[in-house]
Amino acid sequence: MTTLVQRIEAFIVTGHGDFDELAAAAARSGYERVEPYRRLCDRRGLGADALEDWRLAPAVPTSAFKSLRLAADEPREIFRSSGTTRGAERRSVHYHPYPDLYRTVIDASFAGACLPAGTGRLPILSLIPDRAIAADSSLSFMAAHVFENHAAPGSAWAVQDAGIDLDLACRWLRARTEGEPVLVLATALALVLLLDRLEGETGGRIRLPPGSRVFETGGFKGRSLETTPEAVRRHARTLLGLDAEAVVREYGMTELTSQAYSRPGGERLRTPPWMPFRVLDPATLEEVEEGETGLLAFFDLANVGSVCHVLTEDLGVREDGTFRLLGRASGAELRGCSLTAEELGAA
Amino acid sequence: MSTPEATAHRLAATAPSLRAIPDEHVLAAWNDTLAAFLDADSPERRDLDPGLLQSTGLSPAGLSHGLGSIGEGMLGDAAAAELQRPHRQEDDGFSLVVLPAEPPGLILQSFLPALAARAPVLFKSSRAEPRFAPAFLAALGRRLPELHDAYAAVTWTGGDEAVETPLHAAARLVVAYGGEATIDALQSAAVGRLVAFGPRLSLGWVGPGANPEQAARGMALDIATFDQRGCLSVHTVFAEPDTAPTFAAALARALTELALDLPPGRSNTADRAGARLAREEAELRGLDWHGDALDAGTVIVDPDPRISPSPGLRTVRIHPIAGVPPLADWNDRLQGIAVAGHMPATIRRAFEQAGVSRFAPAGRLQATDAAWRNGGIDLAAEFAYGSGGKPDTVSTTTPSSTRNERGSVR
After folding, report:
1. Is the four-CA dihedral B149, B151, B154, B158 of positive or negative sign?
2. Same-domain status, B114 and B257
3. Does the pLDDT value for residue A86 go beyond 70?
4. CATH code of B344's domain
5. Which of A61, A163, A339 sits opposite B406 (nearest CB)?
6. Is residue B216 part of a domain?
7. Would you call A347 and B179 a contact, using CB atoms and an 8 Å cutoff?
8. Nearest residue in B to A294, CA atom
9. How do beta strands B193-197 and B173-177 pair?
């Protein structure tokens, strides 16, 4: 197992190697080491030898992380999803045996996607909780690693036990309108709260130094706000005085180790070479044509500690090697004699 | 064109004349109008159905069956009993009812109590389904012109403060069916008295003595009606452990057979994706599941007794359980229970304490009547007495705004 992890790590760092061969080895490893996955493959008549093509390896729905222990080795980190505000749903658990591999992924992708070329350490404001507050959050794990590698003195965590410290965040931003560029790490929801506060304050909008960036991830997690993530990004650019390329979107989840990123200022998301994606027809689980909507599936080599092939609840469409998010599969939202979230936007 | 606010003030002025209309006149017009809307061959339905089928996505048989399940129990004696209740609006003023996008025809459940209270009402139709309410009001107004000026259905963009702020301020009462966002927004708006019907789901119970085949046929109807989009749609069934496997197989057969009489409506990618993910998860977990075509139903036997909302497409989980199901996470989010066999008193109490307001034999859960009080709320009394000027809220769900949010997403 160590050898396979090392080979995957080398592929992530250098890009050298044969993805298909590594993916087949990772799929076979999942078959051999993750009991529920082996049972699924067996039920479908797929032995280890049949997993030569990673596309044929069954994709595991993210909901399975809520009820099954999908671990190929003893976990060294246990990540849990935060759930939504409704609180009546189960949470995903990712038993992660290889946190160093996670760090390698972050090192190989974060800076290239989020920071202007040549950026060294820079002041960072995080609206994502640190690990002392959210020890089981994979996002906090990532933010902590980003801090460790990229944060200059004066960087700040603006989340306390009680929630986001908007006073601190606003003070921090207003004190950094001159000088070196800064980086803001935020969820979409945290960004909404920050922008609302900034807008309401005396002084209103600010102008962060050129080259500053905002890393934005996630949707509103069940919070129905009268805005959209796209509008929030536009608003952030306006209110923080940022250029068109300043906001970078990240797409990640507890169940995956790797992330997809937008180009700076873009909406479409690109996965790294070690995590190809496919868009699948829900009726057949066959890949749909470019431009057609379907379920997003990822084969994440860095998930070799659990299962690599993951079928998400997100709908998307492939466009020129990237994907665009188009909503969620039904099931997460409680309906019934009510308007749906989508309907709210249209009502 | 009149603004919603101007329309509402016009309605409010009709209160005295509305009170003067004899019960028997209202009853006759109501019965005649409703009967026409329950008859798929009536001129009203022939005009309405093409647009309604398009906006709801239901199959023609599904639409007729669904409207029947809401409306048939509101005809004749049942309607007469409601209209003769003593609650009357004695002051002037109007109420506002915010209707949901689905299921269609839900206006009936608030309209009859409003008529009983002689309360003028402005209905806000959803933009996703703007047809049924104005068509019904117009048809009623043709039969009893005195009602024409007291009720109106209009549509505007939800959240438009220029429209909603003056309306909320002027309304004696706001009744809202909606998702959490709608309810939260109304609760934080300057609304006088608010009666809020938030999102809910319903369950099934297969207890001792149930005939699995018979229970399955009834439960299939409670699942398929409105294609699982109503608050009385069954998402999950608790069944005795010994009966659960047999019942699940019977339910899958019953859903397949029912799909011939009540064909599933139009499905979208999100619904198909949700049903597919439910099947894939079941397979990974090694659960027994039944299902053929993705949109004709999926039955999953899940030993984990926790409730999960169905993704739709007639997907249902059967939880084998011997005692009281875990309901704590679903307090005030459960609407009704379709019952087959015996339900012990302890179980019934647990469901009641979780907020269930309707218990009905399997197959009859969605067939409500005029006497049903959704969430235990007497709407006729609410319409009659309004706020009395005091802000207040009667909510059938816990507002999400009271819950903590740290902002982390994973």
Report:
1. positive
2. no
3. no
4. 3.40.309.10
5. A163
6. yes
7. no
8. B269
9. parallel
B-chain residue closest to A296, CA distance: B273
> What pLDDT, in 10s, does the model give residues B174-224?
999 877 777 777 777 766 789 989 889 999 999 999 999 999 999 999 999
B214 and B145 share one domain? no
Tell me which chain B residues have a C-beta less than 8 angstroms from the C-beta of A218: 409-410
Chain B residues whose beta carbon lies within 8 Å of the beta carbon of residue A189: 405, 407, 409
Mark whether B208 and B130 lie in a shared domain.
no
Domain interval for residue B157: 4-171
pLDDT, one tens digit per residue, over A176-198 is: 999 999 999 999 889 999 999 99
Whether residues B112 and B25 share a domain: the answer is yes
pLDDT in tens, A12-53: 999 999 999 999 999 999 999 999 999 999 999 999 888 999
Q: Name residue B358's beta-bridge partners.
A: B336
Contacts of B123 in chain A (CB under 8 A): none
- pLDDT for B406 equals 32
B118 touches chain A (CB under 8 A): no
Report CB contact under 8 Å: B100, A128: no
The rounded distance, in Å, linking the Cα atoms of A118 and A116 is 6
- Domains, chain A, in order of start with CATH, read 100-270 (3.40.50.980)
> Which is it for strands A277-280 and A293-299: parallel, antiparallel or unpaired?
antiparallel
Spatial CB neighbours of A337, under 8 Å, sequence gap ≥ 6: B100, B102, B103, B106, B177, B197, B199, B200, B230, B231, B232, B335
- To the nearest whole Å, the CA of A16 is away from the closest chain B CA by 31
> Is residue B226, in this structure, part of any structural domain at all?
yes
